[in-house]
């Protein structure tokens, strides 16, 4: 690649690493040592574990692998190995103190920026082998920052995070409730995106029939109707494991909702407020999303349906990087980067709409899909099997293990707490179908009804 491109790549990666570190600092410097070492939920690590784990992974992949330098703190590998110790057991680990963790991540960063400055990124091989590691590490830190943001949401006590509210609804005219995606093939996944992680690869053609998709994510108001209609008491809407789980756990609505004197309130980063009816519903598990869809006479979209709606440009037949095109996310496109601490109302961000008119596919809330997290045909683990491969059903842990009810389900699109480096229309997230602490909502889909929806069965091109 030309020298100017090489320097642009280097600058982009350096900026991404810097932005991730600013955010990590902001999420940890706002709490005292007691709060940083406490476990706010058995679902989460102490925040100081995430902090030093970020540094340990950066040391492994940038200092040792990309830089080929000797290990700085090899004795920390065991403490910060996510697979060795489940989150619930991490408080018992001999962790670095907050100040030791800060000094460690600073030292690693000093080394990794030096390595980045010297990387010969001018041939394709170095670029893909080593430049990729820096891009991966920046995404890794941002993913943990979003996890730390979820820990902040679970934490009790006075609010410490603040942000302005997101923009309102995009227009005065009501949007159509759903959009039609015509049948036909589209390119799913990518070979070319330098930021794409192993599970987004390779690009492959997928043929889909036509389907209708919600224009925007399902709102709190719509979800409240499901709750009020006795949705949690009617087994007809639930998968059998979901019904069993909801009853065992005593769920009556989304996590962080509570009913007080007939009013439904929600806790949001330490503030109690009325549930915002127009906002996408947040903190529901896959079983709740699936049950709502069945109650509404609909279904969750498959992962392929979500991605086609978010990328396929019927005019050119190409798959784009983002719903609005290949341009990077700007403030007008999507609610990302923790600029706000909540989703924007359904229908916001008209500039970020996909060709079909679907809105808010990126940002606001992660969207549950009906699909299990599996490998694309031709998948190759890169650079390590523990990023994706161990979570696939054929290679992963027994789907029936201790906490696990079912396999990992795919979420798409990113939330208000996702950074743009870890968000694109090919990006795949996954979690167990019982998880609700992540910033997850959903939208629904349906098949066309031949008599009522006289639509062309295929994309006419
Ligand atoms: C992609 C969000 C499911 O947090 O388990 C962080 C990201 N992988 N460190 C996770 C990840 C290793 C991963 N998710
Ligand atoms: Fe990690």
Please estimate the helix content.
25-40%
Reported for the largest beta sheet, the result is: 4 strands, mixed
- Strand residue content: 5-15%
Number of helical runs?
Answer: 9
The tally of beta strands, per DSSP, is: 12
First-residue to last-residue Cα separation: 35 Å
Series of H and E elements? HHHHHEEEEHHEEEHHEEEEE
Indicate the structural class. alpha+beta
Write structural notes for this entry:
The chain is α+β, with helices and mostly antiparallel strands. The protein is 31% helix and 11% strand. It is built from 9 helices and 12 strands. It has helices spanning 3-29, 33-37, 47-66, 98-118, 124-154, 220-228, 240-249, 286-295, 303-311, and strands at residues 178-181, 184-188, 204-208, 211-214, 257-260, 263-268, 271-274, 366-372, 409-412, 429-431, 440-441, 445-446. A 4-stranded mixed beta sheet has the order 10-9-8-11. Helix 1 runs parallel beside helix 5 (124-154) and helix 3 (47-66) packs antiparallel against helix 5 (124-154). The longest helix has 31 residues, at 124-154. Mean pLDDT is 93; it is low at 399-405. The structure holds N,N,N-trimethyl-histidine and fe (iii) ion. N,N,N-trimethyl-histidine (AVJ) binds next to helix 5 and strand 10.
Question: Which terms summarize this structure?
Answer:
single chain, 461 residues, alpha+beta, four-stranded mixed beta sheet, three-stranded antiparallel beta sheet, 9 helices, 11% strand, globular, binds N,N,N-trimethyl-histidine, binds fe (iii) ion
